[in-house]
Amino acid sequence: MKSAGFWLMAIGAVVAIGSFFYQPTVNSGYLEQETYNLGKLQFQLMLMQAGLASEITGAVLFAVGSLLERLERSGVIEPEFETLSSPEENVSGELVACAWCNRSVRTPMVPCSSVEPENRRDRFSRVESAQCLENIRKNDPDSLNE
């Protein structure tokens, strides 16, 4: 998300700056004078607005991406599933392996096998590991039922 925001800001800056170099005048044919064409002026204005809108959208995406990254590193929220394959980047803590699947997480994150049975329903309503779901159902079949 952060990189998408950065690239959106970069493209927006190029478009906005490029709109300044767009020539909204045409040759009138009368004494070789230039006259402003309203259609070209409007197009120049739309280019500028598109660039600025892209800048603002990119800045918001970059800020949200940075915030999510900091929250994941601090352990406030769980990292996305793709980032769990490299736990060194997620949070700085002790490496803890799950007894049910091959995933490892760093503390303060807790692997599936270490969660107390009474907290499994709240914490693992969206478990993506099939091995962990199977073991949770075997060990405590009522924890995943609503």
Produce a short descriptive summary.
The protein has helices spanning 2-20, 38-74, 120-123, 130-139; strands at 25-27, 34-36, 95-97, 104-106. By secondary structure, it is mostly helical.
Which features characterize this protein?
146 residues; mainly alpha; 2 domains; two-stranded antiparallel ribbon; 4 helices; 4 strands; 8% strand
Distance between the termini: 34 Å
Give the strand order, joined by hyphens, for the main sheet: 1-2
Order of helices and strands: HEEHEEHH
The helix content, as a percent range, equals 40-55%
Shape: rod-shaped
Give the uncertain stretches in residue-range form: none
Largest beta-sheet characterization = 2 strands, antiparallel
Count of separate DSSP helical elements: 4
Decide which structural class fits the backbone.
Answer: mainly alpha
Q: Please tell me how large the radius of gyration is.
A: 27 Å
Mean pLDDT: 76
**Beta-strand residue fraction:** 5-15%
Counted beta strands: 4
Number of domain units = 2
Question: Could you outline the blueprint of secondary structure elements for this entry?
Answer:
Elements: H1 2-20, E1 25-27, E2 34-36, H2 38-74, E3 95-97, E4 104-106, H3 120-123, H4 130-139
Antiparallel strand pairs: 1-2, 3-4
